[in-house]
Amino acid sequence: MSLGDKISNKAEDLGGKAKEATGKVTGDEQLQAEGKGDQAKAGLKDAVEDVKDAVGDVADKIKSVFKK
Fold first, then answer.
1. Segments in the chain below pLDDT 50
2. pLDDT for 8-23, tens place per residue?
3. Has this prediction a pTM greater than 0.70?
């Protein structure tokens, strides 16, 4: 995962936490739910990037085996 992706995902997560907290304080259930959704979306993006990184690592290992 690139540094830009990590920063973007973290920003989305923090923004979601802020929305959720604001929704709790103001009693705005829709804003609170939106914040939780933003956090879930950021978590899913992190998980997808982790899988992509793992697949790339495996591919690199396979390539190195065939080069020998």
1. none
2. 999 999 999 999 999 9
3. yes
Q: Could you count the other beta carbons within 10 Å of the beta carbon of residue 16? A: 20
Give residues with Cβ within 8 angstroms of 18, minimum separation 6: 35
DSSP letters, 1-57, are --HHHHHHHHHHHHHHHHHHHHHHHHT-HHHHHHHHHHHHHHHHHHHHHHHHHHHHH
Question: Is the Cα torsion angle 28, 29, 35, 38 positive or negative in sign?
Answer: negative
With 0-12 CB in 10 A as exposed, 13-18 as middle and 19+ as buried, what is 34?
middle
